[in-house]
Amino acid sequence: MAVVVPLNPTTVDQYYILASSVVFLYDFALTVPQEIKFLWNSKFKLVNGLVMALRYITVLGYIPVLLLAFMPSTGDTLEIMVRII
Asked: Start and end of every DUF6533 domain (predicted)?
């Protein structure tokens, strides 16, 4: 008889964050060729700059989320993140 151990809510949160990050980054990687074709090879316009800024700021925004989700939980975690930012 198998014993089923319930998952810790923190572990479930980490799986959710990891799965959503993988899906987002996969989508990002799939659309890079289109970005190169339509944005990088065209004349620079404000709209092109805004689209690229939105894409890359969003990707960079995942870094602190992943760090906070998967760093060992200590009292200094928030202090470390504040120093990085």
From this structure: 15-59
